[in-house]
Each structure stands twice: as C-alpha cells, then as structure tokens.
Amino acid sequence: MLAIERKNEILNKLRAEQRVLVSELAAHYGVTEETIRRDLDKLEKEGHATKTYGGAIWGNSTKTDLSYTIRNKTNVEAKTAMAKVVKTMVEDGDHLMLDDSSTALYIAKELKDKKKLTVITNSVEIVMELAGLKGWTILCTGGELKADALSFVGYQVPQILANYHVDKAILSCKGIAPDAGVTDSAESHARAKQAMLRAARETILVLDDSKFDKTSFVQITPLSGVSTVVTNQKPSDDWLRRFEELNILCRYAL
Hints:
Structural class: alpha/beta
Largest sheet: 7 strands, parallel
Helix content: 25-40%
GO molecular function, one term: DNA-binding transcription factor activity
Oligomer: single chain
Protein name: DeoR/GlpR transcriptional regulator
Radius of gyration: 18 Å
Shape: globular
Keywords: DNA-binding, Transcription, Transcription regulation
InterPro entries: Carb_Metab_HTH_regulators, DeoR-like_C, DeoR_HTH, NagB/RpiA_transferase-like, Tscrpt_reg_HTH_DeoR_CS, WH-like_DNA-bd_sf, WH_DNA-bd_sf
Domain HTH deoR-type: 3-58
Number of strands: 15
C-alpha cells in the first residue's frame, strides 16, 4: 500500500470513529509505530487531526469541544498518571472545585479513597462518579446542561461558584502558551474555570504534554494565574525556566 493510500484510510477511520491509536494502526498496516506517527503528523498539519498521547483524535481539539465519550477514551494513560500526582496534593477534609474536563473526572476517580472531601463541580459525570461516598459533600452548580459534554454552563455557573471559597481549584485546558497563557475553546467553559480560580487558595492546572505551546480561542488566565502545573512528562527546559520565573510549582509523572 502506498503511503498516501494509508494516510487516506487513517483519515477515513478518524472521521468514522473520532480517534485512532498508533499501536493498533501499526499492527493493522504492518508498519512501524514511527511510520504511523509521521502519517498523523501530516494529518495534524493539514488540520484534520490532533495528536494525543498514543494516537490522535479527529479535528483540531484547540478549536472544538469533543463529546464526553471521545474525551474519556483519549490520553487515558496520561490522565491516569497525572491523577495519581494530583492525589498526593489533596488532603483529607479539603474543599475542592473540579472543572468539567475529562482530566478532572480521572482525578475524581483517583480521590475516592480520601476522607471527608467537599467537591464543587459543573460536571454531571463527576457528580455521578462521586455519588454515595460516605462522609463526602458533593455540590453541583446547575445551569444550562451541555448534553454532549455532560456539563453545566451558562451565566449561572460563575454566579454560583462566586459564593464559595475552597482550598484548591483543579482544572484543565485546551492549551498553554507563553504569551496567550491558559486557553480554552469555548467562552462558557472559560468563564466557569475563571470563577473557580478566583474562589481557590491554590490553583492546580492539569494538562498532558500535547497541550504545551498550543493556543485555543479564549484565555482562561495568564500563566501567572495558576500556582501549580501537573503534567505527564517533564516539560522542556524553556518551560521549566518560565515556571520558575513565575513561581509556579511544576510536577510531572515521568
């Protein structure tokens, strides 16, 4: 099979299934994983895909919101590793805000053996995940339900969040860049995350390495607006220096 034919088949698979895995494609086509990564590089440059940890997803993820079913199956290994790091930063009895990202859902799952946490979130999935935990207090913002994301958005969310003061706000984003700061693809999500940042003594931004040097539609906060960054792999020396200059603690799984 010619390389262009393979790339077009991968593109069709992305359109149909919304995500692909490097290991599965390499086995299917009988080529190396590096060959598949080059195919995905080309598709990303053409604007058809966004590379993720171990594969790629359909479209440009910095500009669009993926459905929760796709988000929850993307970068699972990285999200699990980052969630374990965040767990070490949360103490029994903490009051937390968690955003509506799939990363926050993995963090919620990892925190379930903690005691007497209070969690405020606009994520339906997180509420369902934590429902019934003895000694926990779970608060949901309400608002306009965004069905494809299983989250609440709208003007009500920042208003409700403004009533609370918490120990830690834990959130994710679509990208971070030196000048653009922390960005997201939709203003409604960004406004909710801004309210969480304002309500917290400590702000923890959790993002995998694919989101570095990426800029999405709307700014959540300048880099200086977060106190800790958690990621799956050690960032570049340039990023580590920038974090140090801004007095941002950086923790990573690998």
